[in-house]
Specification:
single chain, alpha+beta, 5-stranded mixed sheet, 7-stranded mixed sheet
Length: 877
């Protein structure tokens, strides 16, 4: 028989030795960790980091600059008055608060929307009982990572504020319906007032929710009457009545207080209250027929699958779940998504940022779908669904990373709409640098006139806000403006009119805004696949250009176009590199040269040359010119008369040709740019053959041979091998004279040997290739196999500018490069090692958009003066 002592009770232990029982257990034994909450906190932290990284780096969009600027005016004591053109006032107060707390700058101007986008990630947690815990967390993950919400959380417009308030309203309303509390009406109606003070699309939200709850109420009333129940006991009416009249009176008081305080700018502008009630809806109804954006009715049906197809797939599963087991919130999400897609597609204004509003209910439905797939993971359908979700997650990360971090200002992204170009911040920095030099020399700040035609004064009002001596001036065709300021920012269309008055200024062209208007109707499946993988557009992009002019007597005018700083990757890489001084991009003062000959043939008083691009010189003094405007190749005799011409017809017709080269047998090779091919002609300009087709490599050098994306220049070596700059594909391809592929090299990047939008190409006497590496803002010398030899910067070139600087090399190794982006147009002259020797401008009629170059048999340099429809010959160096 075994006798055991009875174990004393815990109380007896405490009484007997005085030691607390917790000391006999592990320290955290009684602590329960809410892993769901821990995961949510980690997700919100991740969302915050993703929204803050490089937040201030992207150029400010037109609309962003207005938000940033008017908030700065309010912060600086200039006040604020509600204007329906700029939507509601709430965000101006929040951005001003960020300025107050953290200072004024590009980062803080976007901080409030970033915080709003972060707050949205936490909100689905409060619907976890209605949606399901996994569904709520899945929706939070999508709000954190999906391309549209991440991008527009880093974009200082009103839409992310509105989306956050809409989700907060959804949470408040459905929590109220589940467990009514007396304080909830004040929260709901206060949020509604804040939403009205954010954007007028709140009327759409109210319409969608109102129609839904009226239909639900009608259904409940019908059921109650058939069952003989009092109507007051229906769920909606019972929830509203349960909190009492006082709660709703406090709710309406909350609405009135919030609405009044925000629209009157804290009672400093009483008129704002009337404007908020009347003018807001009047203005935006008046804008309905305007149809800003000019997009087709199916616009959002293109954007949504382009970026958010994983959510569509998961949302479709969520839809099935809701229809099988309807809940009030589930049915509302379906109703909200379908109706909002219809309303926003019908509305006259269609913009990419509006996509996030119909997307919101879809994300919550997608969370429901993911939850259902996970619960059914043991079934075949569940396994397939989860596999599709995994693929979708990879695509989401690809799309999100590319859009928000890879190229957030690239118009090749559908969600990037008429974006300020990447040239804008450097130009603003140049202006401020010139201002500092002017102040150091004179004690006064730079006097700058900024053109206001068609809104081109934005985003300059933001970027140059501290330059108090800047003036905003109408330089349009109906103005009497005469240039007198030390510096000017002039719209490209106004510059043409003002050009005769700009003789004492040096000008520099750059893209102010860039865009891509996709040709949806002609896009092929291959085009779509290429875009989805590499974001390559299938039709040309566009830009609105502007000019910075600085008067020649202004201290610091010499840095125009470059800012005095070399781009990354432009340091010399080999012994043959240019001298150290060249690596800074410093050029000699311009030298005026006189034309030895001007070649401008006419036929019946009509200029033969329309938009000449590249030129090639033949041993007998004849010239070959490709003309982009007339889609032709023309041979000009030594006396300048037309000897032969080729345009082709049918399948041989040229389309915007830009490059030309001649081999030792006299055969002519043409870069038929927008037919994406090379055309070979004989010496009499008769068609021989052609090779090449459209294809994109995503910037990789090792793409499909003989596929091109906009070939520009042709250079032919002593073996008659043909080198082509495959510009859009960021590479050079080599062929024999019959089109047999030999090699390819380059690939996107700014390191030695990499290329970014290469244009001009020439063969040096030693057989090396000399390349105008446009978007890397440099010249490169490569071996015939693509190995880097030397490089040096050309700081007047800019990224995302569709210029065509061409190259010619003389028999003595002298390198000539056109610089079409500066006014007056000019030619840069370098030694064989890349040392800058001269900058040539032309006496008399200045060069306008000079592009092609060729060295003739007498060492004459031929320049295609495209803007003046002529070819100019000058004596070589």
């Amino acid at each position: 028989m075994v006798v055991t002592e009875p174990r004393p009770a815990p109380a007896a232990i405490e009484e007997s030795d005085g030691v607390a029982p917790s000391l006999d257990r592990p320290l955290l034994a009684g602590v329960r960790v809410n892993w769901e909450l821990v995961a949510l906190v980690a997700l919100v932290a991740l969302a915050l980091v993703l929204r803050l990284v490089t937040l201030g780096d992207k150029p400010f969009h037109h609309d962003e600059s207005q938000d940033a600027y008017f908030s700065w005016i309010l912060y600086s004591g200039g006040g604020y008055k509600y204007d329906p053109l700029l939507h509601g006032p709430l965000r101006f107060y929040l951005i001003s608060l960020m300025y107050l707390l953290f200072g004024v700058g590009n980062f803080t101007a976007r901080l409030a929307p970033a915080l709003m986008g972060t707050a949205m990630v936490a909100l689905p947690y409060f619907l976890r009982r209605q949606l399901g815990r996994l569904a709520a967390f899945g929706a939070a993950v999508l709000l954190c990572l999906c391309p549209s919400y991440l991008y527009f959380s880093r974009f200082t417009r009103e839409d992310i504020y509105f989306a956050c308030l809409t989700l907060a309203l959804m949470v408040a309303v459905f929590r109220f319906l589940a467990h009514p509390r007396p304080w909830q009406p004040a929260l709901i109606l206060g949020l509604l007032a804040a939403s009205f003070a954010t954007k007028e699309t709140t009327f759409i939200t109210v319409f969608i929710a109102g129609t839904f709850f009226l239909l639900v109420l009608a259904w409940h009333v019908g059921v109650a009457r058939r069952a003989g129940m009092p109507v007051a006991q229906t769920p909606l009416i019972a929830a509203v009545r349960s909190v009492g009249l006082d709660a709703w009176l406090w709710g309406f008081a909350s609405f009135i207080a919030v609405f009044t305080v925000l629209f009157t700018t804290f009672f400093t502008n009483p008129q704002g209250l009337q404007d908020g009630i009347v003018k807001s809806i009047q203005y935006w109804l008046a804008q309905q027929p305007v149809g800003r954006g000019d997009e087709p009715w199916y616009y959002y049906l293109v954007l949504l699958p382009a970026y958010e197809w994983p959510e569509i797939v998961a949302g479709a599963v969520g839809l099935i779940v809701v229809l099988r087991r309807p809940t009030l919130l589930g049915l509302f999400l379906v109703w909200s998504f379908v109706l909002s897609m219809g309303i926003y597609s019908w509305a006259g204004e269609k913009m990419p940022w509006l996509l996030i509003h119909p997307l919101l209910p879809l994300l919550l439905l997608a969370g429901v779908g993911v939850q259902a797939l996970w619960r059914g993971r043991d079934r075949v359908a569940g396994k397939i669904g989860l596999a599709v979700c995994a693929v979708g997650a990879l695509y989401m990360l690809h799309a999100t990373t590319a859009l928000s971090y890879g190229h957030p200002a690239d118009p090749e992204e559908f969600l990037v709409y008429t974006q300020s170009s990447t040239a804008v911040p450097p130009v603003s920095q140049q202006i401020l640098a010139i201002d500092r030099r002017v102040f150091d020399a004179t004690g006064q700040h730079l006097k700058l006139d900024i053109d206001t035609t068609d809104g081109v004064d934005w985003p300059w009002a933001w970027y140059l806000r501290d330059l108090k001596t800047s003036s905003f001036v109408d330089m349009g065709p109906n103005s009497s403006y005469t240039p007198a300021a030390q510096a000017l920012l002039v719209d490209d269309s106004d510059r043409t009119r003002l050009l005769p008055q700009l003789g004492s200024y040096t000008g520099y062209r750059f893209p102010l805004r860039v865009w891509w208007i996709p040709d949806y109707q002609h896009a092929t499946l291959k085009d779509w696949a290429t875009w989805l993988l590499w974001r390559t557009p299938w039709n040309p992009e566009g830009s609105l250009d502007e000019w910075l002019y600085v008067r020649n007597d202004v201290p610091g005018a010499g840095i125009i176009g470059g800012g005095g700083v070399a781009p990354s990757g432009t340091a010399p890489v080999a012994a043959a590199s240019p001298s150290a001084g060249t690596a800074t991009g410093v050029l000699p003062a311009p030298t005026v040269v006189t034309a030895a000959r001007v070649i401008a043939p006419v036929t019946g008083n009509v200029p033969v040359l329309n938009q000449p691009r590249q030129v090639a010189a033949l041993p007998d003094g004849s010239l070959l010119v490709v003309d982009q405007g007339s889609n032709s190749v023309t041979k000009l005799a030594p006396d300048g008369t037309v000897a032969a011409s080729f345009t082709g017809s049918g399948t041989t017709a040229l389309k915007n040709p830009t490059g030309v080269g001649v081999d030792s047998k006299g055969n002519v090779f043409v870069a038929d740019t927008w037919n994406h091919r090379i055309v070979k002609l004989d010496s009499s300009l008769h068609f021989v053959t052609a090779w090449g087709s459209y294809g994109t490599t995503g910037g990789q050098a090792t793409g499909q041979p003989a596929q091109f994306y906009g070939p520009r220049a042709i250079a032919i070596d002593s073996h008659d091998d043909v080198y082509v700059t495959d510009t859009g594909n960021k590479r050079i391809q080599e062929f024999d004279d019959n089109g047999k592929f030999l090699a390819q090299f380059g690939g996107v990047g700014d390191g030695p040997g990499h290329l970014n939008e290469p244009v001009g190409l020439a063969i040096a006497p030693d057989g090396n290739l000399v390349v105008a590496d446009l978007w890397n803002r440099r010249m490169q010398v490569l071996t015939p196999t693509g190995q880097p030899v030397a490089q040096w910067p050309v700081l007047t070139w800019q990224t995302n500018v569709h210029d065509e600087p061409y190259v010619a090399v003389g028999p003595d190794g002298m390198i000539y490069v056109t610089d079409p982006n500066v006014v007056p147009g000019r030619v840069l002259v370098y030694s064989a090692k890349g040392d800058p020797l001269a900058v040539w401008t032309l006496a008399g009629t200045a060069l306008s958009d000079p592009t092609g170059l060729a060295v003739g048999p007498n060492n004459e340099l031929y320049i295609t003066d495209s803007g003046n429809r002529r070819i100019v010959a000058v004596a070589g160096k």
